[in-house]
């Protein structure tokens, strides 16, 4: 009789195992078929098409700054990091929620129980076995089942969870400061490249004018040489000057083309053909507009520079380290937990109680409610060492903040000098151009009447060319100096506001 029962149990076990394996196989096949069908439906998800046609756009400097702010990848990446830090605050707050776990187990196992002790296991190799001890050992198996629901809630933690949330908040503040600094760097780079491209285009105009003058002068020299009024070597010198002017123009065009590529990349549209709108940027701001020194440097002190995004990033790093130190201060405290559970167990062993469904369904139920105090005593030494590390981190971050303030103060001082000297040079270059033009006219006349040689005329032409280039560049350099001053104070809006005011009042002119 017992032998027939054992054979029946083994037959039931075989049927049970086969049915479970069949269900698992069907489930895996379904997942694989769905995954393959989705991959076939979306063949281009991982490799989006690349735009091969270049885009041609015409933008002002304000639009260039706005486009860079909207499209440049590093800003998008920093923005995602900020959103991630915001989600980490939410994750930290979930530590206040209670914990509820449910467990269901169905198994087939032997029932050999022996008296003894099982130490806590790091790898959980030996399963726990319960029931009355048996005198022997048999590999015959029975069905077993376990089902339970556990509810636990940390009631008292002495501020550890609040400190953890504070760490997440300080991390979010650091991410926001980093995002602001990234925006400032990207916008400043776009505006500076825009101004450099304008300077390159103004140089092209100056070199084109020089080339036209040199061609005209070369024609005069050739006429005089053909008539025998000047030696033939003068004609070769004039041709050489024309070639030098052409090479200078080619170099200026190359520089402008390279800067155009840099501008397209700086606004997040690499490869596009970007055309600038010079507007009022070709001459320094009018005297009727607010002074750049007043508009850009209202505070101009260390307190004002402490609001610079770089200073805010360094300050946020200090706050993060302080928050981590505060978390460690709250880590070596007892923790009080409210714990409760309800569970049921079933076994196919008929020696104690008759099973339900041959042990597949639980029959015996229990519940428990209690309080647990947890105190990691030996963590004291580890936490003390970690606190020493964080204190060192705070000192290092403070030194980085002081270094950043030194750099910002230096940038502010250099920007002031740069702006003041750029304005002085821009006021002087018109005088230089006028004097060089008069010198060039007089040199030509002297050459025509035979009072000088070709070398003096060539030198006069070079002086005029340099004067025109210097005038074109110096006017734009005033705007570049204003941009540097705005960057030194961490805000480009005063610079962009001055550009808009210049556009509204017309192109800037000489004061």
Overall description:
This protein has helices at residues 2-41, 61-71, 73-93, 160-226, 232-266, 292-296, 302-305, 309-329, 379-448, 454-488, 493-504; strands spanning 56-59, 99-110, 141-156, 273-276, 335-347, 364-374. The protein has 511 residues and is α+β, with helices and mostly antiparallel strands.
How do the helices and strands line up, and which of them pair or pack?
Blueprint: H1 2-41, E1 56-59, H2 61-71, H3 73-93, E2 99-110, E3 141-156, H4 160-226, H5 232-266, E4 273-276, H6 292-296, H7 302-305, H8 309-329, E5 335-347, E6 364-374, H9 379-448, H10 454-488, H11 493-504
Parallel strand pairs: 1-4
Antiparallel strand pairs: 2-3, 3-5, 5-6
Keywords:
two-stranded parallel ribbon, alpha+beta, 511 residues, 11 helices, four-stranded antiparallel beta sheet, 63% helix
- How are the strands of the largest sheet arranged? 2-3-5-6
The Cα radius of gyration reads 41 Å
Number of helices: 11
Report the average pLDDT across residues: 83
Distance between the termini: 118 Å
Q: Which structural class do the helices and strands define? A: alpha+beta
Task: Report the strand count.
Answer: 6
Task: Give helix and strand order, one letter per element, not per position.
Answer: HEHHEEHHEHHHEEHHH
- Quote the beta fraction: 5-15%
Enumerate the spans where pLDDT stays under 50 for 5 or more consecutive residues: 12-17, 32-50, 507-511
Short précis:
The chain has eleven helices and six strands. With 511 residues, the protein is of the alpha+beta class. Helix 9 (379-448) packs antiparallel against helix 10.
């Amino acid at each position: 009789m017992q032998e027939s029962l054992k054979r029946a149990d083994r037959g039931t076990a075989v049927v049970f195992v086969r049915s479970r394996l069949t269900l698992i196989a069907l489930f895996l096949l379904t997942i694989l078929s769905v995954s393959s069908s989705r991959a076939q439906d979306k063949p281009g998800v991982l490799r989006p098409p690349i735009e091969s046609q270049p885009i041609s756009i015409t933008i002002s400097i304000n639009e260039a700054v706005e486009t860079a702010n909207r499209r440049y990848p590093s800003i998008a990446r920093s923005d995602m990091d900020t959103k991630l830090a915001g989600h980490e605050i939410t994750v930290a707050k979930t530590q206040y929620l209670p914990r509820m776990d449910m467990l269901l187990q169905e198994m087939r196992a032997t029932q050999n129980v022996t008296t003894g002790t099982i130490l806590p296991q790091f790898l959980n190799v030996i399963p726990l076995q319960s029931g009355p001890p048996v005198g022997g050992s048999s590999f015959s198996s029975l069905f077993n089942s376990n089902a339970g629901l556990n509810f636990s809630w940390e009631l008292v933690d002495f501020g550890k969870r609040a400190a953890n949330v504070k760490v997440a908040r300080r991390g979010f503040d650091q991410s926001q400061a980093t995002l602001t600094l990234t925006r400032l760097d990207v916008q400043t780079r776009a505006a500076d490249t825009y101004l450099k491209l304008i300077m390159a285009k103004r140089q092209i105009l100056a070199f084109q004018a020089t080339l036209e003058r040199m061609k005209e002068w070369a024609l005069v020299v050739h006429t005089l040489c053909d008539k025998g009024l000047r030696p033939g070597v003068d004609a070769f010198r004039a041709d050489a000057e024309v070639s030098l002017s052409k090479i200078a123009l080619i170099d200026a065009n190359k520089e402008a083309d390279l800067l155009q590529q840099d501008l397209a990349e700086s606004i997040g549209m690499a490869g596009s053909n970007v055309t600038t709108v010079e507007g009022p940027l070709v001459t320094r701001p009018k005297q009727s507009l607010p002074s750049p020194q007043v508009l850009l440097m209202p505070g101009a002190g260390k307190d004002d520079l402490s609001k610079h995004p770089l200073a805010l990033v360094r300050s946020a790093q200090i706050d993060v380290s302080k928050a981590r130190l505060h978390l460690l201060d709250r880590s070596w405290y007892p923790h009080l937990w409210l714990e409760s559970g309800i569970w049921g167990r079933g076994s196919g062993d008929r020696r104690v109680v008759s099973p339900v469904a041959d042990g597949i369904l639980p029959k015996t139920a229990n519940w428990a409610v209690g309080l647990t105090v947890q105190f990691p005593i030996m963590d004291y030494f580890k936490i003390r060492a970690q606190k020493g590390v964080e204190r060192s981190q705070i000192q290092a971050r403070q030194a980085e903040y002081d270094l950043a303030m030194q750099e910002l103060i230096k940038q502010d001082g250099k920007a002031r000098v740069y702006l003041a000297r750029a304005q002085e040079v821009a006021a002087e270059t018109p005088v230089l151009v006028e004097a060089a033009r008069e010198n060039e006219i007089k040199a030509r006349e002297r050459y025509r009447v035979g009072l000088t040689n070709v070398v003096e005329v060539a030198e006069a032409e070079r002086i005029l060319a340099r004067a025109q280039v210097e005038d074109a560049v110096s006017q734009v350099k005033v705007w570049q100096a204003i941009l540097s001053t705005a960057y030194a104070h961490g805000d480009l809006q005063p610079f962009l506001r001055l550009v808009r005011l210049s556009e509204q009042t017309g192109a800037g002119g000489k004061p």
